[in-house]
Amino acid sequence: MEKVAEYLKIERAQEWRGELRKSMKAKERTSRERVDMLERDPDIRNKNIDEVNLGLTEDMALLEAQRCLDCPNPTCISGCPVEINIPKFIKKIDAHDFLGAAVVLKETNALPAVCGRVCPQEKQCENSCFYTISLKMPAVAIGHLERFAADYERESGKVAIPKVAESNGIKVAVIGSGPAGLSAAGDLRKLGYDVTVFEALHEIGGVLKYGIPEFRLPNEIVDVEIDVMKKMGIKFVTNFIVGKTASVEDLEAQGFEAFFIGSGAGLPRFMNIPGENFNGIFSSNEYLTRVNLMNAANPDYDTPVLSGKNVAVIGGGNTAMDSVRTAKRLGAERSVIIYRRSEEEMPARVEEVKHAKEEGIEFMNLHNPVEYFADENGRVNRVRIQKMELGEPDASGRRRPYPIPDSEFEIDVDTVVVSVGVSPNPIIPSSMPDLKMTDWGTIVVDKDTMQSSIPGLFAGGDIVRGGATVILAMGDGRKAAAGMHKYLQEIVKK
Amino acid sequence: MNKIVEKEFFSENVAKFVIEAPEIAVSRKPGHFVIIRIDEKGERIPLTIASSDSENGTITLVVQKVGVTSAKMLALEAGDVIRDVVGPLGEATHIENVGTVLCAGGGVGVAPLLPIVEGFKKAGNRVITVLAARSKDLVILEEQMREFSDEVIIMTDDGSYGTKGLVTHGMEEVINREKVNLSVVIGPAIMMKFAALTTKKYNIKTYASLNTIMVDGTGMCGACRITVGGKTKFVCVDGPEFDAHEVDFDQMMSRLGAYKEQEMEAYENYLKTVE
């Protein structure tokens, strides 16, 4: 940690940074208003899959970058799970060196264009920004600037390939190509390892491809970042399920010396209420996978999806917002969120809730489904809902919802998406009886090194956390890569 | 990319494919299935593995034309490639020596039944196999079944081969004749439903291998969920074999029909493109 603080100090002391700081008075910087990102018109965007956010113009980015005070103690960095050198990249923008800013991002973040789009910055870096903490003013738009730098680099056609250490010939396997796996793979490759990523699906990217919709994270953006990783020398194998196609032991026999498991949150949770298996009721995983990964909404593709006129989405997380906004885009006349707590407790990003409302999504907060009904063909046609009220805080710190007696009523629906969370994917754990698991089916790891109960095996992301965010998974991947490096170097020395 | 090394028509709408898949060929066990996607625009469908050859690195699948994807598959020839093949998926059949095993297969369900028949025979069981089809030319894999069965009973709807009658008639004939310790049934949902009702009457433990709609096949989406013993189960990771007496076959049939309209429309459009 001290080494990092020392490094940040040295970086900050560089002449160009000092000059930039002197070039404008702090008062002038803080007198600026935070920039708002350009967005597509809600009534147009809710009928197509074009990306909602349009990014910042160069002028907007420059003005916003000037707001950053380049603090001596940059608290923002501690709010970032992958510890991006935030003031440095922002000052690179301030200095008109946009490509340089992108290089800084990639020092610690394998997927900056992704994070600039999907991170809950308001809970992380921006929540730790000097403006938020001390000035009680809107934070520097760190997320917007991250996206700007990454997009500028991509659109310039001059995408920098991160430096890779000389190959050490040690083979390591990364299981799962979602954010945790990609982040681990990037760091391991930079350290000189021979990295192979194994992916169960036919596409690389995990939840970035099957889960997050095109209107929030275009696949093309993900593909460019993956392409960079390929150019770094990382190998990708699709249609390969470790634990099924071949076991960890089989891969050890092929020379792999350490493993990172980032297999994600496999099993969708249902509520186990009557009628939940009627046709037209999906898990959010299924609904989004059909539309995002399998292109079900495009008639040229073979995969179908049931897209109703009256869609109810159960839940209040980002995945619920993605599902309900997808339903609107597939032609729903009424697309409604049913959430058992109030908006205040919603786990979704503030921006997603705002965008959903702008697009005409209805919110039935403090409501919970209790039973589904179907027509003669078995297709859901009504849901019975009860009203809820909030009581004392529960283990998550949020106020626990209680049903209000005699408050039940029914609404018409023809499609329901259940988005109440996921459980860890059981395939790898069930293939390794010695692997220590929690009662919730997550892998037990050392929180600093991400090492599991089996020494050569590390894990991170939702298989450890049970359902979190892209950036937390990426933070785990980085930590695990460092842990694996330490573990492997000790073996090599022996 | 997986190459088709051999293709053989069993009947007009049913064909056998031998496909290069070296890792799967080594790791698969009876009861396992694969998910395939024919081309870039294709859907992901599950197919149970009929047999494998670990030396040549191939697996064998038997496909019946029922919709767009299976029609596209049947149009492929030896030398063509399938875009994606992933597996082996699901839990393998629990094979042990129980005494006498009554295996019943209907239609193309006979193909995934073959490795199970083989497995139970090699585990030392007496194996009696009932093969059911609409007519003589739709009876498949009879010879291979005879190799691993102590007795094979053929039932056809029209009486053009074997005995005229339903699969359940053949099963009951055996049950009334001798002690059966276990039954395994694979075929269309309606056939499995009635086969299960038959064995339930005689209190014979019965497994059914279910072929539901799937997307990822790894437990991620829940498209394949069914009710077994009052609880929701995922066919892809909890199955594909379940206690047949506990399966809600009516719900399963309803769920299999979830996309009936889209499937028919897509098939009509497909036929126009090939004409």
Give the helix/strand layout.
The complex is a heterodimer of chains A (494) and B (275).
Chain A: H1 2-13, H2 15-22, H3 26-31, E1 38-39, H4 42-45, E2 53-55, H5 58-67, H6 75-78, H7 86-94, H8 98-108, H9 112-118, H10 130-135, H11 142-156, E3 171-175, H12 179-190, E4 194-198, H13 207-210, H14 219-231, E5 235-237, H15 248-253, E6 256-261, E7 267-268, E8 281-283, H16 284-293, E9 310-314, H17 318-329, E10 334-339, H18 350-358, E11 362-365, E12 367-374, E13 380-393, E14 399-403, E15 409-412, E16 415-418, E17 422-423, H19 427-431, E18 457-459, H20 462-465, H21 470-493
Parallel strand pairs in A: 3-4, 3-6, 4-5, 6-18, 8-16, 9-10, 9-16, 10-11
Antiparallel strand pairs in A: 1-2, 7-17, 12-13, 13-14, 13-15
Chain B: E1 2-11, E2 14-20, H1 22-27, E3 33-37, E4 45-48, E5 51-53, E6 58-64, H2 68-74, E7 81-82, E8 84-89, E9 100-106, H3 110-122, E10 126-133, H4 142-148, E11 151-156, E12 163-164, H5 167-177, E13 182-186, H6 189-201, E14 206-209, E15 225-228, E16 231-234, H7 235-238, E17 241-243, H8 249-256, H9 260-274
Parallel strand pairs in B: 9-10, 9-13, 10-11, 11-12, 13-14
Antiparallel strand pairs in B: 1-2, 1-7, 2-6, 3-4, 3-8, 5-6, 14-17, 15-16
